[in-house]
Design goal:
The chain has 373 residues and is an alpha+beta fold. The chain folds into three domains: 127 residues, no CATH class; 171 residues, Rossmann fold, CATH 3.40.50; 50 residues, no CATH class. The chain is built from 13 helices and 20 strands. Strands 3-1-2-4-9-8-7-6-5 form a nine-stranded mixed beta sheet. A hairpin with a 3-residue loop joins strand 1 and strand 2. Helix 4 packs across helix 13, helix 6 runs antiparallel to helix 7 and helix 9 packs antiparallel against helix 12. The radius of gyration is 22 Å and the shape is globular. The termini are far apart.
Length: 373
């Protein structure tokens, strides 16, 4: 680290001592933005950071700025940028792909940016390059057994976690769970996205939602009904507007808010594995599956989870064809290798269920496979 950076003000974040992130010269609102995006809290690093987010007032251009595609990305003569709309101006965030995943990889952001584009994707690729596998999953501990629930997006992972936590399970992680390959599951302290229909399935939780969030859910509910009523059930723009309003019928809640101060451990042991999938049937069906098959199927799922990063990478290569990313291009094969290694030997089952998920029915179907340890 050079002398100028030593003198710069910085804030550190740490992912279980395995991936360190340093924010250099951020404003307080910049720190809040990154903390909100990653779910990590400020700490101190006793080692060099793996990922650096540097904040500046302005990123000067080398030549003119040329937008790409719909205008979310652009480049000048020297750099590739993500463009983030703001209240007064568009903020530029400089992205490099040739050093992505390498120690000290740097993202340069203009101060006041409302979010750092692709930040979770960059963090996960950095973790992967360190041998830490990010998996789209939920994880919890129940009756002494650590349970990992994975699958395609909207496949029932959070619903399973909520259902078991309502019966006393301890939260490890939701959305992203990290597997270091030593039998542990690691989570991050991010809030859970709880939909209104989750509260219908688990009515004991409704009273634990804060007053402001309850008011928001009521307002969104009535707004959606009003739009649908005005559209008289029609499609087109009115129907799409109603659908967009309906997609806001959720709240973000910390596990401790619902289930108490000790409800989130963020660390668990990988003892049982479930792959959740939806089907056109009213029944919940549980079938044995090999952990190797789960690994193979989740390799494909993780490729889709990285699609936004691939889209940005393709545009960056259009601007700068020689700035290739070996780490990104090898990510799929690296994930496949780490998935097989991490899941090997873990008893695994596939849970097929209708969607929306009947949360109590899924819990009842899985319970017999989780004996008290």
């Amino acid at each position: 680290m050079n002398g100028a950076e030593d003198r710069a003000q910085h804030v550190d974040l740490d992912l279980h001592g395995l991936v360190g992130i340093r924010l250099v010269d951020p404003r307080p609102e910049d720190v809040r933005t990154v903390v909100r995006q990653l779910g990590l809290t400020p700490t101190s690093l006793s080692r060099e950071p793996d990922l650096v987010l540097r904040f500046v007032d302005d990123l000067p251009l080398a030549g003119t700025l040329r937008p790409l595609g719909a205008g979310a990305y652009a480049h000048d003569d020297a750099c590739f940028y993500a463009l983030v709309p703001g209240r007064r101006r568009r903020h530029k965030v400089q992205l490099r792909f040739d050093t992505l995943g390498r120690p000290g990889h740097e993202v340069v952001c203009e101060r006041g940016v409302s979010s750092v584009p692709l930040l979770m994707d960059v963090l996960n690729l950095t973790a992967l390059s360190r041998g830490l596998l990010p998996l789209h999953a939920s994880a919890f501990t129940v009756d002494g057994l650590g349970v990992l629930v994975t699958g395609w997006a909207k496949g029932g992972k959070t619903e399973t976690l909520l259902g078991f936590m309502a019966e006393g399970a301890t939260h490890v992680g939701d959305e992203w769970v990290y597997l270091p390959g030593d039998g542990r599951m690691l989570g991050i302290p991010e809030p859970m996205r709880v939909w209104e229909w989750h509260l219908d399935d688990l009515p004991s939780l409704r009273g634990r939602v804060g007053r402001r969030d309850r008011a928001r859910l009521r307002a969104v509910h009535w707004a959606e009904r009003a739009v649908r009523s005005a559209a008289a059930g029609g499609g087109g723009l009115a129907g799409r507007t109603a659908d967009a309003v309906g997609r806001q019928r959720f709240v973000h809640v910390q596990p401790q808010t619902f289930f108490g101060a000790g409800a989130s451990a963020l660390v668990g042991r990988l003892d049982r594995l479930f792959l959740t999938v939806t089907h056109y049937d009213t029944r919940v069906v549980v079938l044995p599956v090999t952990p190797t098959e789960v690994a193979q199927r989740m390799t494909a799922s993780l490729q889709v989870e990285r699609s936004r990063l691939w889209e940005a990478y393709a545009q960056a290569l259009f601007a700068f064809p020689h700035d290739r990313s070996p780490v990104l291009e090898a990510a799929g094969s690296r994930e496949a290798e780490l998935l097989v290694r991490a899941l090997s030997g873990v008893p695994a089952h596939e849970v097929r269920h209708p969607y929306p998920v009947d949360i109590p029915a899924v819990v009842r179907a899985m319970r017999p496979l989780l004996p008290t340890s």
